Amino acid sequence: MEDVMSATQIDCARDGILTPEMKYVAEAENLDETTILSYVANGKLVIMTRDKNPPVAIGKGVTTKINVNLGTSSANVDPGSEIEKVKIADRYGADTITDLSMGGNISYIRSRVFENTTIPITTVPIYQSIVEHGMNNVTSKDIFSTLEKHVDEGVSSVVLHCVDNNTLGKLKGSERVMGMVSKGGSFTSVFMLTNECKNPFIQNFDAVLEILRKNDVVLSLGNTMRSGCIHDLSDDAQMSEIETNIHLANRANEKGVQVIVEGTGGHVQANDIPDTVRYYKSLSEYPLFVAGPLPIDVALGYDHIAGSVGASMASGAGADYLCYITPSGHLALPTPEQVREGLVAFKIAGHIGDTIKYGMSDRDLMLSVKRRKFDWDGQIEMAIDPDKPKEMCPMEGPCTMCGEYCAIKIMQNYLSGDNRYGN
């Protein structure tokens, strides 16, 4: 077997070696070590690592994880604001951050992101390739050079859009309202169409896997064909992409490269969300990453709320990993405060999904016990976002909603004989 230092988590799991990262996950997620070894070896569970920092487990048997997207654009370059967003994402419990910067000094911004958080960082390398070389001049060599650069710098995961020519052909003849809304997917597709070639990631997939293996970087297979509005129903292009991504995920897993599949994201009418997630899970047990999904299109300015509703349904149906949406989705780059709002909304969604998947949470029970006792500090401690309720609650006694006519207080003496949770 390879030296443990150069082996991937999958390699170790297949050899029965419980890595420090696996031990951490077993304790943090309350899973037995044998289960961890089995899930990692089969690709059902991904362990995203970054240096010596705590790892993040995504997939079967663990809590739903939340990703925060941030980064500059060609229309808004403010590195200071992006770093403030990084700190907010860290403070309010993001599990991962994806840097999508496409404006300014991208490499410098990424280095500052690394400096200001210890949580795993994901990138979409083709973004930087397009910015630095131009849409019409970028080459396959440029794309792979950027991929290697990101891996060498220490990213934990990369997103590659592996749309094939057959799938792209199905999109052209479709009657979609929004067409293609994936930015990374559109860049990759334009490269293929301009150069009249196959997808470079698919054509050189073994080389991709070798690049990722050296640092055990997780491959996230992008969702190029996601819907851009709820009237764009599931179609042949989406089904074709699912099949391609699962085939590539199998190849990655065989080579010891951890893999996540993106799907069921974007805009999906509410009654289709659970069935779409379950359909993917019937085909594959690789961790499923979902952006949103948004179950309505008219929530402009409140897309984080609409998205969290869709995300809770997706998580409850089996999605493993959620990408947040902010209030400014479809409108502008989010402000730091909007990053907080979007993250908290999706942490709520993930928690709801976990209660559906795994049953009621002790954390909810503990908060309710403290609420019965008017223990405001205790309630705040259990809250998903402790800062906001701290600004609203009284120092002691009932809240101002009911004052002296609080139902709990009125009935307290009558119910005092019920001591299951204390008085």
| SSE order | HHHEEEHEHEHHEHHHHEHEHEHEHHHHH
**Major sheet strand order:** 3-4-5-6-7-8-9-10
> Percent of residues in beta strands?
5-15%
* Computed structural class: alpha/beta
Output the number of helix runs. Answer: 19
Largest sheet: 8 strands, parallel, barrel
Helix coverage percent of residues? 40-55%
Total beta-strand segments: 10
- Oligomer category: single chain
Stretches where pLDDT is under 50 for at least 5 consecutive residues are: 1-5
Instruction: Indicate the radius of gyration in whole angstroms.
Output: 23 Å
Mean pLDDT across every amino acid position: 95
Shape, per Cα inertia axes: globular
The rounded distance between the terminal residues' Cα atoms is: 59 Å
Question: What does the model show?
Answer:
The protein has 423 residues and is α/β, with parallel strands linked by helices. Residues 1-5 have low confidence and may be disordered. The strands form 2 sheets. It has an 8-stranded parallel barrel with strand order 3-4-5-6-7-8-9-10, surrounded by 7 helices. The chain has 19 helices and 10 strands. α8 (165-172) packs antiparallel against α12 (236-254), α13 (273-283) packs across α14 (303-317) and α14 packs parallel to α15. The chain is globular and about 80 Å long. The protein has helices spanning 9-14, 20-28, 33-42, 79-91, 106-115, 125-133, 140-153, 165-172, 183-195, 200-203, 205-213, 236-254, 273-283, 303-317, 336-358, 362-372, 376-382, 387-390, 407-410; strands at 45-48, 56-59, 65-70, 96-99, 121-123, 157-160, 218-221, 259-262, 288-291, 321-323. α5 links the parallel β4 and β5 (121-123). 45% of the residues are buried. The N and C termini lie far apart (59 Å).
